[in-house]
Amino acid sequence: MVTKCKKSRKSGSTKRFIGKPSGKIQERVSKVGADRFAIVVVDCATRRSKWMLCSFFGKVIVEPSVVEQSKGCLAVMIEAVREAFEKEGIVDSIIAIEMTGIYHKPVQRAFRKAPLRYSPCSSVRVQPFSQCVASR
Fold it and tell me: Are strands 118-121 and 37-43 parallel, antiparallel or unpaired?
């Protein structure tokens, strides 16, 4: 007699999926102008993170710098971002925070309290920026 093995099927996937870009950046850039749009990238780690600010065209506005994962240091980083926005005339921006375990949570909380618009990103999407930050 042959018995069949029942395979259990999961109802949903537990993986986090970040879909393809839907062109929302282009709308925002065209609304304010490319010279008034910036990208902040934060590469999170256990005790300290590295961040940089660049224009839409890739011109580095704030060189990559290290920030400790403490409330005060993150507040100084956000103040530096705001000052650079004011100095360069930046109206809109994207803040990309690399999701690394739970290490991105303090950075995410700091930007939420600021309040600045941020986007948690998978490490695959932030990798080119992270490589640029690491090479400087």
Answer: unpaired
Residue tagged 């506005």 (tokens): 61
Burial of residue 84, with CB atoms counted within 10 A of its CB: 0-12 exposed, 13-18 middle, 19 or more buried? middle
pLDDT band at 130 (very low <50, low <70, confident <90, very high): low
DSSP 8-state code for residue 21: -
Q: Which residues pair with 60 in a beta bridge?
A: 54
Tell me the fold of 37-135: Nucleotidyltransferase; domain 5 (3.30.420)
CA 115 to CA 109: how far, in whole Å?
10
Rounded CA separation 16/104 (Å): 16
List, for residues 2-52, the tens digit of each pLDDT value.
666 666 555 555 554 444 455 567 788 888 888 899 888 888 888 888 889
